[in-house]
Amino acid sequence: MACMITMDRDKCIRCGRCAAVCPALVIEKQDKDYAVAHPNACIKCYHCVAVCPEDAVSCGEFPLDDFAIIGSKKPASAAAMRNLLMQRRSVREFKNRPVPRKLLDELVSLALHAPTGHNAQCVNITVITDTEVINSVDRRITRTFEALASLTDAPMAEELLKTLAGRDSAGLVLEQKKTLRRALAAGEPRSFLVFRGAPVLVLAHNKPGAGLTTRDDAIIALTHMMLAANAHGLGATWIGYIVGAARVDPTLKRRLGIPMRHSLDAAFILGWPKYSYKRAIPRAVKNVKWIESVQDAGYREKTGAGRGK
After folding, report:
1. Three-state SS for 281?
2. Is 213 found in the same domain as 264?
3. What domain range includes position 47?
């Protein structure tokens, strides 16, 4: 990336904050002043601009006024954040009420403020508010799943599935088949098992070679967006089915307005919840390991005596 950082020596008080927060060690102290010593290493995170108390650092990409002053604003309290995280539910039942475009624009903006690996900022977000597009893709995926499920109707096929996938995994597939058929028998909208008749579908996708952590970046961006939506009273649910279905049937991406070469990495549905929840759901604290010493890690470093043999 081409470095766009400039420093005003007249404003600079030589506090060294810009150099201290630079993750790529672009800024160095030279004699008594700080300077952009390694411009080609800049990843455009602009921490240096944000941390400078005297506005002595600027960048060519954004005017300084676009860097909102946040020092005087208190972050959300720990209690408020805990409440937001605890009350978040996977919402699949929505009111017949559109989500305003202005609110969606704000949520997308917050999603794009999420961190990305190496500050690549390559996540593409597609927001679909046309329910006919959403529902037509839902019907297509459901038909595909029904066709695949029908392959296990024969007794021999069921036994083969248990042999190949194991009894637990096979049992899950067969139970899902029953759920699918109950939904199809109920008709629409109950048969919309993928997107649940939601008014909004949000997709995160990336072009090939965009970065080393594109799938992680997509999930983190949509998590930001989902939590912000929850704070506005909206409900959402992750939809892994569409990610898997797009790998099996890439033409789904064309129906969703996503470039065929892009990978579809994350998706969720969004809308105004039809029902409110009285209680938070408890979770058992498990699968957590604390490592506070080398012994806790379960291994022992080799001493120098045994090395080289």
Report:
1. coil
2. yes
3. 5-66
Q: What is the CATH number of the domain that holds 103?
A: 3.40.109.10
Nearby residues of 44 by Cβ (< 8 Å), 6 or more positions away: 1, 4, 59, 61, 119, 121
Domain boundary among 142, 162, 186: 186
The rounded distance, in Å, linking the Cα atoms of 237 and 112 is: 19
Minimal CA–CA distance to 64: which of 5, 24, 10? 5
Q: pLDDT, tens digit, for every residue of 205-232?
A: 999 988 889 999 999 999 999 999 999 9
CB 267 within 8 A of CB 204: yes
Contact present, 121 and 220 (Cβ < 8 Å): no
Q: What's the pLDDT tens digit per position in 246-265?
A: 988 899 999 999 999 999 99
Separation of alpha carbons 98 and 169, rounded Å: 38
pLDDT value, residue 283: 87
How crowded is the C-beta side of 287, counted as CA atoms within 13 Å? 2
Q: What is d(CA 39, CA 60) in angstroms, rounded to the nearest whole number?
A: 13
What is the DSSP track for 154-198?
SHHHHHHHHHHH-HHHHHHHHHHHHHHHHHHHH-TTTT-TTTTT-
Q: Which helix (H) or strand (E) holds 49?
A: helix 47-51
